[in-house]
Amino acid sequence: MRGIRVILVAMEVRPTIAGDIDSLLEIDGVIDSSDYLHIERAGEGLGISWRLDERPLRTRLIERNAMDDEVRFGLRQIISGADEGLALLAEHESRVVASLVAQIQPSAGLLRLLDLRVDFDQRRQGLATVLLYRLIQEARDRGLRAVMAQTRTNNLPAAKLLLKTGFDIAGLDAQFHSNHDLVKEAVTLFWYAALD
């Protein structure tokens, strides 16, 4: 009789400490997407409306997605205790393979996701989902009203992950990064997971 072989992959999720920062920078957080959310604008003035449709990208997106200065600064502030927030990482076999950084915005009553990355070789194992659920639980435990995130329309995997974990699109900015975001298929989307 054949038995079923089960392989358990041990992952540890823990708070990030100052000594982990260099390891976080080594995570291969490349964005790899063949599709995007196409934004169609109709109307003008106060009668403007937007429509989103999933479409194939003209050219497959493979973007390095290095941790930017804002995220590094926020991470250091949270680890040092200068700012309130959440900094988590996931380890597999003593190697950092995923991280999450979020900062509390007390005046808005929300926890803002600054960065979520999973090493390319460790994707599709639920790590990002686990980290997002920990983020949502942290916001609930602190009595906040919502968790906020932002993505770009050319990063469809991130959009699908946020939808799967209870986030809704709350708005968009077609000029957040440049005056040509709409043309470049890289419009910024704002997401909220309401907790009340």
What does this protein look like?
The protein has a domain of 126 residues: Gcn5-related N-acetyltransferase (GNAT) (Aminopeptidase), CATH 3.40.630.30. The protein is α+β, with helices and mostly antiparallel strands and 196 residues long. The protein is globular. The termini are far apart. The model has no long low-confidence stretch (mean pLDDT 90). The strands form two sheets. The chain has a seven-stranded mixed beta sheet with strand order 1-4-5-6-7-9-8, with helices on both faces. Strands 2-3 form a two-stranded antiparallel ribbon.
Question: Which helices and strands, and how do they pair?
Answer:
Layout: E1 12-15, H1 21-25, E2 31-42, E3 49-63, H2 69-80, E4 85-92, E5 95-105, E6 110-118, H3 127-141, E7 146-152, H4 156-164, E8 168-173, E9 188-194
Parallel strand pairs: 6-7
Antiparallel strand pairs: 1-4, 2-3, 4-5, 5-6, 7-9, 8-9
Looking at the structure, what is the overall shape?
globular
Strand proportion, as a percent range, falls in: 35-45%
Radius of gyration: 18 Å
Question: How much helical structure, as a percent, in the residues?
Answer: 10-25%
Q: What's the total helix number?
A: 4
- Tell me the CATH superfamily of the domain at 12-43 and 56-149: Gcn5-related N-acetyltransferase (GNAT)
Termini, distance in Å?
52 Å
Provide the low-confidence segments as ranges: none
The main β sheet shows up as: 7 strands, mixed
